[in-house]
Amino acid sequence: MSDAATPTAAAPPVRNYAMSCKTLVTQEQIWAATAKCAKQIAADYRQYNLTESNPLYLLCVLKGSFIFTADLARFLCDEGVPVKLEFICASSYGSDVKTSGEVRLLLDVRDPVEDRHLMIVEDIVDSAITLQYLKRFLQAKKPASLKTVVLLDKPSGRKVSLEVDYPVITIPHAFVIGYGMDFAESYRELRDVCVLKKEYYEKPASKL
Ligand code: PRP
């Protein structure tokens, strides 16, 4: 990755967080992998002659993917890919570390997306229940194309079979937080992706 593509925030490469979590992927590793993925997307979408009036629609799945979407959009900008942004909100975890298995759609896209090139932008795919639901939901809107880009792919968690078009980083089985991802709505602001220690989320709330 060239220096020009690297966001310039002067953050130290090693950051210390609360003892309840351990860094798994640093922000710098995320940026390097995302820049590479943006290059691949740019190459693959050349066939569609994307322009301002025929852009790639990034569908940011709130809340978890707000930081990843912001970074991906800017790396795509570096590659000359015109994008527009839409936001969709789906939730299936609540404040638990395990999926409820039931996806609640809390916010739909604002503009019509029929005949548009859509890219669902997710922070993580674990059971894949959310992404499967969103793919079906958006396919029904008859887009010109529909693909998926996911920062963290956790294949060990799959409950439904689903292939991600652009998996950025594959991670092992662990409950992760940071870089947009939460535990009971906390920790989204961490720069890195961290593993939340089991002792922490298995403690009764009164002892946290
Ligand atoms: C998380 C994440 C994905 C989904 C992935 O969302 O952002 O959308 O879970 O898990 P799955 O593959 O097992 O379905 P969550 O329900 O926690 O909502 P949030 O993004 O608002 O935190």
Helix content: 10-25%
Can you list the strand order of the major beta sheet? 4-3-2-5-6-7
Radius of gyration: 17 Å
**Beta-strand proportion:** 25-35%
* Bound ligands, named by name, code or SMILES: 1-O-pyrophosphono-5-O-phosphono-alpha-D-ribofuranose
Shape: globular
Beta-strand segment tally: 9
CATH architecture: 3-Layer(aba) Sandwich
How many discrete domains?
Answer: 1
Number of H- or I-type helical stretches: 4
Mean pLDDT comes to 89
How would you classify the helix and strand content by structural class?
Answer: alpha/beta
Distance between the termini: 40 Å
How does the major sheet shape up? 6 strands, mixed
Order of helices and strands: EHEHEEEHEEEEH
What is the CATH topology assignment?
A: Rossmann fold
Tell me, what is the CATH class?
Answer: Alpha Beta
- Uncertain stretches of 5 or more adjacent residues: 1-7
List the helices and strands and how they pair.
Blueprint: E1 21-25, H1 27-44, E2 56-62, H2 66-78, E3 83-91, E4 104-107, E5 117-125, H3 129-139, E6 145-153, E7 166-170, E8 176-177, E9 193-196, H4 198-202
Parallel strand pairs: 2-3, 2-5, 5-6, 6-7
Antiparallel strand pairs: 1-9, 3-4, 8-9
Bound molecules: 1-O-pyrophosphono-5-O-phosphono-alpha-D-ribofuranose (PRP).
1-O-pyrophosphono-5-O-phosphono-alpha-D-ribofuranose is lined by residues 61, 63-64, 90-93, 99, 122-131, 182.
